[in-house]
């Protein structure tokens, strides 16, 4: 496979690590900046909300640009945002850095995937896509736990400098790229057109609720499992590694499972298992061995529902599939943002023991939304690209 694909994967790995790393660094960040853990958690919210909002806007504004120029500017912006965050001495400057980084990330990822598709050898498109998108999965499995370990050992700023270094290395990708054609131009109105379909909107609502449920808890995982980890950042990094291993397993088995049993069964089972796992957290977070099992199951389930959702959306919107999948990504990041906000409010009002319960309840609503989306009568795709 072309070397450039692996460099693009380094970029998605850096972005995936950056998006979720603060979940493991909240105690260090809050202590250094003199803010509460709940406030520090809003750094995750800010990044995710900015990503969700800026993704369709940046796509529309740069629609006539060559992809090579887009990913170069996107990576430079992403790196700059993390430099601002690493050098910041206040929460407000950190927020600015997170918004800048999200602006770059939201532009890089979709174009990196498109470049992988266009530059894949004959008959190897699926492999090329798995390499680039795999950077995000590996970030969950390795990037976040390694970043948490580095942060607990050398300070949270060291983790951000690591992300900066990864982003800089990924800049080799546009240098090695040959001429890449500009993407077909589409207006923001065209990109939002799939929302006119009620059933597509319902499926996107399921994605949104699932991510709210998960990240209401995941953002504050250090507080939720404080008793099991003894407050140790290094022990927390082990738990995050277990979660990442579960994510890899869930992602690996989701595709074949959808092919065999259909997206409905896989989606509802995955969402149901995740909701149940979160509801049980008040009794599974006291000892490390039990916490390992809970986190492993959570990781598997949380990465199993994404594949059937993408499959379902493409099935429903054959004419506007790329736009629908893009909107699913926005719903995903918006869910992470809202989850972080609700989690912070829950932590402040009733404490960490209730985070799993509240997250699990939202998860039940996600199951209901998913079930309802299959009850709605399927209609022909009337949304055109």
UniProtKB/TrEMBL annotation:
What GO molecular function annotations does the UniProt record carry, in alphabetical order?
transmembrane transporter activity
From the Swiss-Prot or TrEMBL record, state where the protein is found: Cell membrane
The record describes its membrane topology as: Multi-pass membrane protein
Question: Major facilitator superfamily (MFS) profile domain: from which residue to which, for each copy?
Answer: 4-385
Q: Name one Pfam family in it.
A: MFS_1
Query: InterPro entries from the xrefs?
Result: MFS (IPR011701), MFS_dom (IPR020846), MFS_Efflux_Transporters (IPR050189), MFS_trans_sf (IPR036259)
Regions crossing the membrane: 39-58, 70-89, 95-116, 128-152, 158-177, 198-218, 238-258, 265-282, 288-306, 327-347, 353-374
Its predominant location is membrane
Instruction: Return the GO cellular component terms, semicolon-separated.
Output: plasma membrane
Name the chain's protein: Predicted arabinose efflux permease, MFS family
Check the record and name the SUPFAM superfamilies matching this protein: MFS general substrate transporter
| Keyword annotations | Cell membrane, Membrane, Transmembrane, Transmembrane helix
């Amino acid at each position: 496979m072309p070397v450039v694909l692996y460099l693009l994967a380094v970029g998605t790995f850096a972005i995936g690590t950056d998006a979720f790393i603060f979940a493991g660094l909240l105690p260090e960040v809050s202590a250094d900046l003199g803010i509460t853990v709940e406030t520090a958690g809003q750094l995750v919210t800010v990044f995710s909300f900015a990503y969700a909002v800026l993704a369709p806007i940046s796509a529309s504004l740069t629609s006539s640009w060559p992809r090579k120029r887009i990913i170069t500017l996107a990576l430079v912006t992403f790196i700059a945002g993390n430099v601002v965050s690493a050098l910041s001495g206040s929460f407000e400057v950190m927020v600015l850095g997170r918004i800048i980084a999200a602006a770059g990330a939201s532009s890089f990822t979709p174009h990196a995937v498109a470049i992988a598709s266009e530059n894949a050898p004959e008959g190897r498109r699926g492999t090329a896509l798995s390499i680039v998108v795999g950077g995000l999965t590996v970030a969950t499995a390795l990037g976040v736990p390694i970043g948490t370990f580095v942060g607990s050992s050398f300070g949270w700023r060291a983790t951000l400098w690591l992300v900066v270094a990864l982003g800089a290395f990924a800049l080799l990708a546009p240098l090695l790229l040959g001429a890449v054609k500009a993407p077909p131009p589409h207006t923001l109105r065209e990109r939002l057109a799939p929302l006119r379909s009620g059933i597509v909107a319902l499926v996107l609502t399921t994605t949104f609720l699932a991510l709210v449920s998960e990240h209401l808890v995941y953002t504050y995982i250090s507080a939720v499992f404080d008793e099991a980890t003894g407050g140790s950042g290094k022990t927390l990094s082990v738990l995050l590694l277990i979660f990442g291993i579960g994510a890899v397993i869930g992602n690996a088995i989701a595709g074949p499972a959808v092919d065999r049993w259909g997206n409905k069964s896989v989606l509802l089972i995955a969402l149901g298992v995740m909701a149940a796992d979160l509801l049980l957290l008040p009794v599974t977070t006291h000892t490390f061995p039990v916490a390992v099992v809970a986190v492993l199951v959570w990781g598997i389930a949380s990465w199993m529902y994404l594949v059937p959702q993408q499959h379902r959306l493409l099935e429903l919107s054959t004419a506007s599939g790329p736009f629908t999948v893009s909107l699913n990504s926005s719903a995903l990041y918006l869910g992470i943002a809202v989850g972080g906000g609700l989690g912070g409010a829950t932590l402040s009002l009733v404490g960490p023991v209730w985070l799993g319960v509240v997250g699990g309840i939202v998860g039940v609503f996600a199951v209901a939304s998913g079930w309802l989306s299959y009850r709605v009568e399927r209609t022909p795709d009337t949304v055109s690209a």
